[in-house]
Amino acid sequence: MTSGTSTPSRRFNTDRWRATPGPFKVGAVILAAHALFAIIGAVWTPYGFAEMGAGLPLSGISWDHPMGLDQIGRDVFSRFMHGAHIVLLLSFAGTILGMVAGTALGLLSGYVGGWFDAVTQRVVEAMISIPFLALALVMIIAAGPALAGAPVLIVFVVGLVYAPRITRIARAAAMEIATREYVAVAELRGEGTWSIVFREILPNAANVLLVEFSLRLSYAPILIGALGFLGFGIRPPTPEWGLMISENRNLLIASPVTVFGPGLGLASLVIGFNLFTDGLSRMLGQRPVAGA
Amino acid sequence: MSIFRLLASRILLSALTLLLVSILIFLILEALPGDVATRILGREATAKALEVLRSQLHLDQPALVRYFQWLGDFLRGDLGTSIATGRPIADVLGPRIVNTLLLSFFAFILYLVLALVPAIIQAVNRGKAIDNVISVITLLLLSLPDFLLATMLLFLFAVAVPILPALATISENSTWPEMLRVMVLPAVTLAIMMAVYAIRVLRDSLIEVLRSDYVRLAELKGLRPRAVLFRHALPNAIVPALNVTALNLGFLIGGVVIVERVFSYPGFGTLLIDALQLRDIPLIKATVMISAAVYVAANLVADVLAVLLQPRLRTSR
User: Fold this and answer.
1) Which residue, A120, A267, A287, B297, is the most exposed by fewest CB within 10 angstroms?
2) Does A92 or B179 have the greater pLDDT score?
3) Do B97 and B105 contact (CB within 8 A), yes or no?
4) What CA–CA distances, in Å, run from B15 to A122, B8, B21, B111, B246?
């Protein structure tokens, strides 16, 4: 929760928890489970995530290997566990980058207006016109072989794909807030543009931006997974879940759990984020916009 | 008169957007600092190979000259030559675009059914169990990555119950029934992915319209519920869903990349992936440019349709 909005400081108590919307609760529980799983997976896994010969390759599922083994004998469950924090960290980092860039640009453009706004909007429009997956893939190719598969590149790409979309939302919010009296008062006080944008407009746009952040965060694992699935994501042997699904796709007949285990992880994470967003937007009185 | 001015300004803005897209693509792919040829071939490339590639891409000329050369050729319909195959890009792209259009058309028809039917059922039975069940299913499907949904459908209908082909390979002499059978799984995947977004919007707007005065009036006049729903409520409720459909077309272009890849369908999407893997810059530029043009055109059509369908929008703005 952010501070600075009109709501009083939120202290956790059971009454408040009971009053929150159902989807928010279910989503929060799913996300907490994912976070816990990710923390455990980051420090301990039954086998090494890149350890070959953890068992007989393709020997199927057993108590020792709940998701089976892949073609080079790596324990898929250990890889799945280790991948959890990677998926979460990449999603958060990418979305935060997009939020910071998009919010700064959008608020400024919405408040300042004029030619700056006109130019920004045309560039934003152009970036949104390139299908996001194509834009992401092109940027990955443009980064060249030296950076290919590096986490930094993935974070940067997610941020850059998100930034123009977030800019739009932030701009709309800023234009609405800019007409309020307290902004006029601040202008009369002689405050500078930066001060007005970040001290007056940003706190009042917090609700809109929070829902937007949550919405973008929901989609980040899918985007990162899609890049991995297509072979343009994180470099192997790092067990990003989308990459794992594509690695083990030819085991679909022999051992479906090996493919759908990481798939279930990815889907449940996104369900958690989506429910959380849905509940959050209801609590903050916002309506989330569907669509990538 | 004003409607023509509106149209003209929208078309001009779209053209401007595409011009900016071309600049962006060029900047990203060719004007980043560093040597383009080295980035394509890697550091281990021999000096000779680099030399050949540089002359193929005309890298000896300044970036500005190359950009206008490319733009001019593109506008005249000359899409350039693919580096990997040495063939004119128009020849490579043509059949792939036709395949993807076929697939998209099929998917779009399915999408209309898959979006309208659940939304109407929900709106008519709002608040009842069936409404909630469909909402939950939509939310679950909304959370499913497209590549996972495609893989799941492939597993269900091509592996577990093998009634459909796993690989959507088609050739020039495939017959129509064969083509359709092959396209079922990819088309269903795309249609579901698009429908889940539209169902929510359509349901909400339908419920809103069903509460409105003119629907009440139509009901009070004694029109049959079916007539009220299909003649009065639905046409008005569709307008908000149009924007989602335009967004969906944007998604379709991206989704096609994933879905075609999963089912090995020889379309536009697999071509883009191939071009990216081979770092075939002229082919990448052409494919991305065309996909952006489709998106911009789809949005333009949706805007215009929204104006034509809802007279209120004609005067405002």
Assistant:
1) A287
2) A92
3) no
4) 11, 11, 10, 29, 17
Fold of B89-315: MetI-like fold (1.10.3720)
Omega before A237 within 30 of 0, i.e. cis = yes
A271/B contact by beta carbon, under 8 A: yes
Q: To the nearest whole percent, how much of chain A has pLDDT over 70?
A: 93
Distances in Å between the alpha carbon of B195 and those of A75, B131, B136, B149, B225? 37, 16, 14, 13, 25
* B161 at A interface, C-beta within 8 A: no
Q: Give, for all 317 residues of chain B, the pLDDT tens digit.
A: 577 887 888 899 999 999 999 999 998 888 666 667 776 777 677 778 777 777 777 777 777 888 888 888 888 888 888 877 888 888 888 889 999 999 999 998 999 899 999 998 998 888 889 999 998 899 889 889 989 999 999 999 988 888 888 777 777 777 788 888 888 999 999 999 989 888 988 888 888 888 888 888 888 887 787 777 887 788 777 777 777 777 777 777 778 899 999 998 999 999 999 999 888 888 999 999 999 998 898 888 878 877 777 655 555 44
For residues A290 and B13, what is the distance between their CA atoms, to the nearest angstrom?
25
CA distance A61 to B23: 52
pLDDT the model gives residue B124 = 86
Contact B43 A145 (CB under 8 A): yes
> Which residue of B146, B244, B254 is in closest CB contact with A132?
B254
CA angle B171, B177, B182 (to 5 degrees): 60
| ipTM of the complex as predicted | 0.86
Torsion sign over Cα A278, A284, A286, A288: negative
**Is pLDDT of A249 > 70?**
yes
Residues of A numbered 235-254 whose beta carbons fall under 8 angstroms of chain B's beta carbons: which are they? 242, 245-246, 249, 252-253
Domains of chain A: 92-236+267-284 (1.10.3720.10)
B161 → chain A, closest CA residue:
A253
Min Cα distance B248 → chain A (Å) is 8
The reported pTM is 0.88
User: Are residues A130 and B139, on separate chains, in Cβ contact within 8 Å?
Assistant: no
B88 backbone dihedrals φ, ψ, rounded to 5°: -60, 135
Closest CA to B196 of B261, B134, B259: B134
> Given CB atoms, is B29 within the 8 Å cutoff of chain A?
yes
Among B147, B155, B292, whose Cβ lies nearest the Cβ of A256?
B155
Sorted by sequence, the CB contacts under 8 Å of residue A47 that are 6+ apart come out as: A54, A74, A75, A78
Distance CA B54, CA B57 (A): 5
Domain residue spans of chain B:
2-76, 89-315
